[in-house]
Design brief:
Chain A has helices at about 5, 20-30, 30-55, 60-75, 85-120, 130-145, 150-160, 165-170, 175-200. Chain A has about 210 residues and is an all-alpha fold. In chain A, helix 3 (about 30-55) crosses helix 4 (about 60-75), helix 4 (about 60-75) runs antiparallel to helix 5 (about 85-120) and helix 7 packs across helix 8 (about 165-170). Chain B has helices at about 5-15, 20-30, 35-60, 65-75, 85-120, 125-130, 140-145, 145-155. The chains are: A mainly alpha (about 210), B mainly alpha (about 160).
Chain lengths: ~210, ~160
């Protein structure tokens, strides 16, 4: 064997990451390292849901911790009918709704006043193009203008990409309610995002016939 | 009767989740209606900007070591249930040093008063010197209407 062949590294096959089911089985046996892997695996996706519901607030980190703690404590009841992602998202939505209800209780008067301010219909025609940062502000204000129940539907259906049936199951509401909330929420979002649409989309072509 | 096109209908079309016959019907509608085309494009754009903005905000919102913080909370000993006795015990613990310091101060002041009374050989009773009260003058006796009391107490 030549010395060169000893220097060439052998192709290493990286072991496949453990499945959720395998990790859950280990967690149920008390393996907290396995739980750590699950937290790190789903941290990002759960954060998207919580941020979509609450915005970028200091409450996000607390809610994230509560979500994973509740998940850990309810593992005995978790039968695996839904995926871990769906289960975590459901917990996250409910926790976030709790926070929004608490906020409304304390600041209801101020929030309702803010809601009225959110409408941006006053944008004059021919205004400057909506830049990226302004667009983000617009989107944040659009989401913040939605009542919590509408926000939950928009988060699950539009942002997280769950189907309407799944959203209904996760929110424990009838299918038809999700449909109507989705329609109304979309109408509200469109009102606020209109300046962005006008900048981005071509005007509706009118028929010359 | 023809059903109105809902947001969910358009979304499922965008996701490719509509049955082929419904998708074909919607395509025909879209061809015939620029307003519906616009609605579809607005919905597509709405979904895109919502997903992009939220993902960006979420990336900024994540604080490091979430797993560590979660595990620390899970491993923390459970907080004992607070009772009224605990409250009183805590209050006693809180006020014990204050009470001790006050008592000590009172003892020091009383000793100092007694020491002064002895040093100046003041004609005061023990309680007057303890509390550093001036001797009872004749005017004060009349003012306080203690004359009878004093006379009665005299041997």
């Amino acid at each position: 064997m030549s010395t060169l062949s000893l220097l060439v590294p052998l192709p290493l096959s990286r072991p496949a990451p453990p499945s959720d089911d395998a990790l859950l089985a280990r967690v149920r046996q008390g393996d907290q390292d396995a739980f750590r892997v699950l937290v790190e695996r789903y941290e990002e996706t759960v954060t998207v849901t919580v941020v979509s519901m609450l915005g970028r607030t200091s409450e996000v980190d607390d809610v994230l911790q509560e979500v994973f703690i509740q998940f850990y404590r309810s593992l005995e009841r978790f039968r695996g009918d839904a995926s871990v992602r769906t289960y975590l998202k459901r917990i996250a939505i409910n926790k976030a709704l709790d926070v929004l209800r608490r906020r409304k209780r304390f600041f209801g008067r101020f929030l309702s006043r803010d809601d009225d301010d959110v409408h941006l219909n006053e944008t004059a025609p021919g205004q400057e193009p909506v830049e990226a940062s302004e667009r983000k502000q617009l989107v944040r204000r659009a989401i913040a203008s939605l009542p919590p129940n509408y926000r939950a539907v928009i988060t699950l259906r539009l942002i997280d990409g769950f189907s309407t049936e799944e959203a209904a199951q996760m929110l424990n509401i009838p299918y038809g309610t999700v449909l109507s909330r989705l329609n109304r929420a979309n109408q509200k979002l469109k009102v606020i995002l209109q300046p962005y649409f006008d900048e981005t989309l071509p005007p509706i072509a009118t028929s010359t016939d | 009767m023809k059903r109105p096109t809902t947001t969910d209908h358009l979304l499922r079309y965008l996701e490719g989740a509509l049955p082929s016959n419904e998708a074909a019907r919607l395509q025909a509608e879209l061809k015939a209606s620029p307003a519906l085309q616009r609605e579809l494009e607005e919905l597509r754009l709405t979904q895109t900007v919502l997903q992009q903005t939220t993902a960006g905000d979420a990336a900024q919102a994540v604080k490091p070591f979430l797993a560590d913080r979660v595990l620390r909370q899970l491993n923390a000993p459970p907080a004992a249930e607070a009772t009224l006795d605990d409250l009183f015990a805590n209050l006693a613990g809180l006020f014990r040093p204050v009470a001790f310091a006050s008592l000590l101060l009172m003892l020091v002041l009383a000793s100092y008063n007694i020491y002064l009374a002895q040093q100046y050989e003041a004609e005061t009773t023990f309680s007057e010197s303890l509390l550093a009260l001036p001797p009872l003058s004749e005017e004060a006796v009349y003012d306080l209407d203690l004359y009878d009391l004093q006379m009665n107490n005299q041997p």
